[in-house]
Amino acid sequence: MKMKQTYAIALTTCMLVLGVSCTNDDFNVNDQSAGKTITLKVAQAEINTRVGHSDTEPEATDGIIDVKWKSGDAFALYGSSTPETFTTTDDGKTAYFTGDLPSGGGSFNAFFPAGKAATAGNWVHNVFDVSGQKQTGNNNLDHLATYNYMTASLDEEPNENTLIQFTNEMAVLKFIVTLPGSGITPTCLTLAAQGGSPGFYIKKGVTDTSLDERSGQVTLELDNIVPDANNKFTAYMMAIPVDDLSKQFEFSVACDDGKAYIYRVKYSSPLVYAKGKVYASELDFATGGDNYKVASVFDNDIAAKTTTDLATVQFDGTGDAESPYLISSALHLKKLVDDVDQLETYEGKYFKLTTDIHITADEWTPIGDSNNDSKKFSGNFDGDNHVISGKLNGSTTALSYFGLFGYIYGTYEDRIKFENLHITADAYSVANTTCSLGGCNYYVDFSNCTATGNINGETNAGGINGINRIASFSNCHFSGNVQGKSNVGGLSYSFAGNVTDCTVSGTIRSTRYNCGGLVGQYTSGTMSNCNNYADIFVDKTTSYFRVGGIIGSLNYDNISITECANYGTITVNSSYTDAFDTPVGGLVGYFFNGATNIYSLTINNSTNHGNIIVNGPDMMDNYTFGGGLIGYMKDTYTLNSTGNSNTGNVTINGSDKGTNWWIGNNRDYDPE
């Protein structure tokens, strides 16, 4: 496998071809009061630098992408009110745009393209959004126009002498791909950041970080791509600049031959994508190499296989620990889905994954369904460090739990082992719970399992798992964005058991209760040596909420947290007006369980580094709680605490509480 990665080539302006410069002939300027028509001269940024991020800078082999305005282009101009749209009929690097001047109080901002500008609100509500990119045709730049975000700022009201100078806000990823043979049509290209990085921005607020969404992967759909005589094609993807990507990457190209061609690479330092640059990667899948893998594609044809179609498909192996059943293709994975649906639980059996699998099917059916207790997977699963990548989509509300597995069920006497499985996939469903790996799990021990992607649930959501009862996590890690309405956690939304040596990075979002960096609701066990790096946002909630950097809500006895840390910023904006249920904590949001007066909690050698910002209705100021350690703890409960610290600032309804505000409802608490 040959891969030439990576160099950056300057964009002389922004990114795509947008048209020819108009002349500098005189033009009429109308009265410049708000609402009057005005014509403005507008230019794109000139960038003349070049940056590389490989160990040795490869020689540049292609030129600069030239960018121009195109007739019909439009930007939104913001003053102090609703923005106005300015449109050009020119072509060129400098053009004249005409529109109505918005009212303003001294400063103005512009956002391009106007079609993606915020209209309900003001400038700060604008978002760079790179989701849904699709390229049609080889070496085609047309699709990039939709994602060619630029901004400009003015210190005063513009007039006929004003030059609006736009700044390019995007980076461009260029992929020069050589497929391993002729007659292969690529259908999807995915770039994934692995190894604990927060990943790529899928959305980024122009000024408001609460609008940011990050995922461990970015995807470009490919349509009607016909490689040339040398089996090469070139693809382009817009990327929001980022400076904290990981050192490990996976490049994946899914094709219509039922395979996905994958290259994994590790760099000596984290990669940086800067605005105004083109980053080129040469992926030669014809040569092969140690880091080159071929995955089996789980496409719509595989998904449509029936029990009759699968009658002759058999697993190699005997299913015992010494000779596990081998899943060596997407067809084998489909057989497992179907067998469990046909009530085969594989209790006491062992499975091993022997190949990477790339899922492109429009609909994913989880392995197991908790709505029917007989449709459960009760075997042991070794991923053998292989990767399940692509997308997991579920569109039925009939399921309660959605993930790669829907229902994993062991017993107290026969606990199940899940190990060495890595999922690099976005997951979305309308089920009650959405996650990447296991939806509902009983007596399961997860070790060395990771998940990377964007997890979006209509209700409950977990980065790796949904609900876990008497389970364990050891050396498990999630990176990306987790979003749900209630019960949301970076590892799991609800957990009972031990959690050791685990991390979460990216963003966690909720609009209701029980939201935690690692676990939304923790009901028993010990948590040790675990870190949350994800920023947490609970916004526009009219429900009660319990939010914590490590755990959102605790309501059971004898739980311990040891050598854990939260690094993420926690931001909560609420309109909830009921008493007491408004706690936000750097480590634990809420420690309370009705009338019970005997519960205890142990927190040792743990730290909150993230700022805590809680905004609630002014009338509820006395019931809005935030603390560097715990948001709210019942006064009669016992906290055993040694060696803890807080460096994050606590702000409640605009009031700065500093770093010594340990427990939101107990300002006199002494951490020692």
Structural overview:
This protein is mainly beta and 672 residues long. It has 2 helices and 59 strands. The chain has 3 domains: 2-294, no CATH class; 299-481, no CATH class; 485-672, Pectate Lyase C-like (3 Solenoid), CATH 2.160.20. 2% of the residues lie in helices and 46% in strands. The longest helix has 12 residues, at 330-341.
What's the quaternary structure here?
single chain
User: What structural class should be given to the helix and strand makeup?
Assistant: mainly beta
Estimate the helix proportion, in percent.
under 10%
* Largest beta-sheet characterization: 36 strands, mixed
Proportion of beta-strand residues: over 45%
pLDDT average, as an integer?
Answer: 86
Q: Helical stretch count?
A: 2
> What is the count of structural domains?
3
What does the overall shape look like? flat
Which characteristics define this entry?
672 residues, mainly beta, Pectate Lyase C-like, 3 domains, 36-stranded mixed β-sheet, eight-stranded mixed β-sheet, 2 helices, 59 strands, 2% helix
